[in-house]
Write a structure and sequence with these properties.
The complex is a heterodimer.
Chain A (H helix, E strand, L loop, with lengths): L1 H25 L6 H26 L7 H18 L5 H24 L5 H20 L4 E2 L5 H5 L4 E2 L2 E2 H19 L1 H11 L1 H6 L4 H27 L1 E2 L7 H11 L11 H21 L3 H38 L1
Chain B lengths: L1 H24 L1 E6 L6 H16 L4 E6 L6 H13 L4 E4 L8 H9 L3 E5 L10 E4 L3 H18 L5 E7 L5 H13 L6 E8 L4 H14 L3 E6 L2 H13 L7 E4 L3 H10 L4 E4 L2 H17 L6 E3 L5 E3 L5 E3 L4 E4 L3 H5 L3
Parallel strand pairs in B: 1-2, 1-3, 3-4, 4-5, 5-13, 6-7, 6-8, 8-9
Antiparallel strand pairs in B: 10-14, 11-12
Helix pairs in contact in B: 2-10, 3-4, 5-6, 7-8, 8-9
The chains are: A mainly alpha, B alpha/beta.
Chain lengths: 327, 332
């Protein structure tokens, strides 16, 4: 099974490489190292959020409120910065991370203790968070000149050729890779999603693992919120509106099964990069916006078809093995 | 000699009569806004006071509005204005239909009703004053592009439009009007129209795409507030300030920073002071019965043409640049 998953990632990597080759044939400049680094930096926020979403999806849940979390935490972060420009930015980032975590814990708690399906919980909190953004801001925008220079410059600071924004996602990828591959808790999250019944019998509290997945998703949304606000230098009610769909699409394209239990950090990152490359290349290729929408949509459906086909095989193999082992 | 004396005396006599008459009449105009404490409407009030000071008759402006922007609150306020027997009501409605019954009642009592900014359905008012018209907005955007081209120190150059979503009606109408005005500006070549969907990240990416694709691009016109901000930020981040200028429609409070950084040379939006001023003049003309079916005078803003439904357009959007953006950023 591991072999197969590895193949899948290799397949996706091949698709991305051929996509780059196709774009490069039309616009050679797109393949310049500086441009590719720019595309990676642009996709960083998507990667960070997709990795949080991946954990949640692995536990058979879904976090629709992830973009609304970015919006609410982002507005909190921006408000603090605009009201107290001298307040140290690292502390603001910590506050943002903490606040995002709290919002994630709220989702997780409702799923774990109230036993409400996650799609209902996060649909509700999505609306609540968006509403709260309006309550905090009273509909007003916070703009570039109301933010402090340090607040705006940190993610833009270039270190070893890559802006801090890009490094943030590198760190998150490394941390998540270690967490999902080498930590017991990370492995238990997979177990809880792969087969909740089996996980229960070996002493894994499935609900608690879901709570933890939502908490981590909230933490990453909190970090991403600061990066988002400072990158686009504006905070308003509709920040990252609809972005949750792009985040979920990244996971799906990356081979994270909506049914839970499967999905890897590398696959998820490749999924996000795939969308990031398409989003960055389409404006340069200059095709009609209606085609752009159709292309993005078709790609997602194709990825889901590829997924469900490979999953079906995996499912059968597991079942047979399990049956064989049992008998 | 005799004739001039007679004329002089009559003139003085009539002017005295007129002024005493005005004192006795003591016109009152109720200015009902969406909610209290909004800078935009306080600026409109400033304009209304300017108009009342200008008009010879003694006009009292009653500036009022609910605490929260609700139609219910406005209905209560309009009710009390009716019982105070004001001469005219100038209103920016929280709901175009909910205010119609109460405003009809006001009109039955002889009170003139003008809506501005956010309109009331035709039955509820005599004239609605739009800040501008689609044609004027489209033309203004192209004029701004020409100004920005000069700021980029170029005689000829490419321009691109960054819109909201490809299905946004008002945006598409404005783009159509821009294209109509374009032939009069031979120095401008429109090379692309892209869509940022009013999302900061997509608008940002589209701007990057434009700059990469069109090396001769000098101006990006974004007639949408999210788009103009995201484009200005993208230009700043790409270190293209001074080479590529962003312009279009936006609010001074949102764009002040980008005007200072140089990513935006100038931009436009209606001026709330002018809007309050013009609406007050229209109300005054309705009271005086000096407005015709097709035209109404607005003081220094000129004469507005009325369509069959009593809609008027005030003027071209007002241009903001480094000289005035800081002052207006405090207002809205």
């Amino acid at each position: 099974m591991k072999q197969l998953l590895k193949n899948r990632e290799a397949q996706l990597a091949l698709v991305i490489l051929s996509l780059l080759a196709m774009i490069g044939a039309i616009i050679p400049d797109f393949l310049a190292i500086s441009n590719l680094l720019g595309v990676y930096t642009d996709t960083s926020i998507l990667i960070i959020l997709a990795l949080g979403q991946m954990l949640v999806i692995i536990t058979r849940c879904i976090d629709l409120s992830i973009a609304a979390n970015v919006a609410l935490t982002g507005m909190v972060v921006a408000t603090i910065n605009s009201l107290y420009p001298d307040f140290p930015v690292p502390v603001i980032i910590l506050i943002g991370a903490g606040f995002g975590t709290l919002l994630g814990m709220l989702n997780g708690w409702l799923v774990w203790k109230m036993k409400i399906p996650s799609i209902v919980v996060t649909l509700g909190t999505m609306a609540i968070f968006r509403g709260a953004v309006f309550l905090i801001s009273k509909g007003a925008w916070i703009n570039a000149h109301q933010m402090s220079a340090t607040f705006l410059e940190i993610p833009r600071y270039v270190f070893l050729g890559l802006p801090i924004l890009g490094w943030c996602s590198v760190i998150v990828i490394a941390a998540m890779y270690y967490f999902t591959r080498h930590r017991q808790l990370g492995r238990k999250i997979y177990a809880a999603g792969n087969s909740p019944t089996a996980a229960y019998y070996i002493g894994v509290d499935v609900g608690k693992k879901q709570f933890i997945a939502f908490t981590i998703s909230g933490l990453l949304a909190g970090i991403a919120s600061y990066l988002w606000i400072s990158r686009y230098a504006v905070a308003y009610v509709d920040i990252a509106n609809g972005f949750e769909m792009l985040v979920i699409a990244s996971c799906v394209i990356g081979g994270v099964s909506i049914a839970g239990g499967t999905g890897t950090v590398i696959g998820c990152v490749l999924g996000a990069l795939f969308l990031g490359i398409i989003n960055n290349a389409l404006p340069v290729i200059g095709i009609s916006p209606f085609w752009q929408m159709a292309i993005s949509g078709s790609v997602i459906i194709l990825a889901v078809i590829a997924n469900s086909r490979s999953e079906r095989k995996v499912g059968r193999i597991i079942l047979r093995k399990a049956v064989q082992n049992a008998s | 000699m005799k004739l001039t004396t007679i004329i002089k005396t009559t003139l003085i006599a009539t002017s005295i009569m007129a002024s005493t008459f005005a004192q006795a009449a003591d016109m009152r105009i109720g200015l009902v806004v969406k909610a209290q404490g909004i800078g935009f409407f306080e600026a409109a009030y400033k304009g209304a006071q300017e108009a009342s000071a200008e008009i010879e008759d003694n006009i009292e402006i009653i500036y009022t509005g609910p605490v929260t922007p609700t139609a219910e609150g406005q209905i209560e306020i309009i009710n009390s204005l009716i019982s105070q027997k004001v001469d005219a009501i100038v209103v920016s409605a929280n709901d175009p239909d909910a205010l119609v019954p109460i405003l009809k009642r006001a009109q039955q009592r002889g009170i003139k009703v003008v809506s501005f900014d956010s309109g009331v359905a035709t039955a509820g008012r005599q004239i609605h004053l739009n800040p501008s018209s689609n044609e004027l907005i489209g033309r203004m955007n192209i004029e701004l592009a020409a100004t920005s081209l000069e700021a980029a120190k170029s005689e000829k150059g490419d321009i691109a439009i960054l819109s909201a979503s490809p299905t946004a009606t008002n945006q598409n109408i404005w783009i159509g009007e821009m294209e109509k005005a374009l032939p009069e500006f031979p120095q401008l070549t429109l090379v692309a129209t892209v869509y940022g969907d009013d999302l900061a990240d997509k608008s940002y990416r589209e701007t990057q795409g434009l700059v990469k694709t069109y090396p001769n691009l000098k101006v990006i016109v974004a007639p949408t507030t999210v788009g103009i901000l995201a484009a200005a930020q993208a230009i700043t981040d790409m270190k293209k300030t001074g080479e590529v200028f962003v312009t279009g429609l936006g609010l001074p409070s949102e764009l002040a920073g980008h005007v200072e950084s140089g990513a935006v040379n100038s931009f436009a939006i209606w001026n709330p002071i002018d809007l309050g001023y013009a609406a007050t003049h229209i109300a005054y003309n309705l009271i005086q019965d000096t407005a015709s079916e097709t035209e109404v005078e607005m003081g220094r803003m000129g004469v507005a043409q009325l369509d069959a439904e009593g809609n008027a357009a005030m003027s071209s959007p007002f241009v903001y640049d480094i000289s005035n953006v800081a002052e207006f950023a405090k207002i809205f």
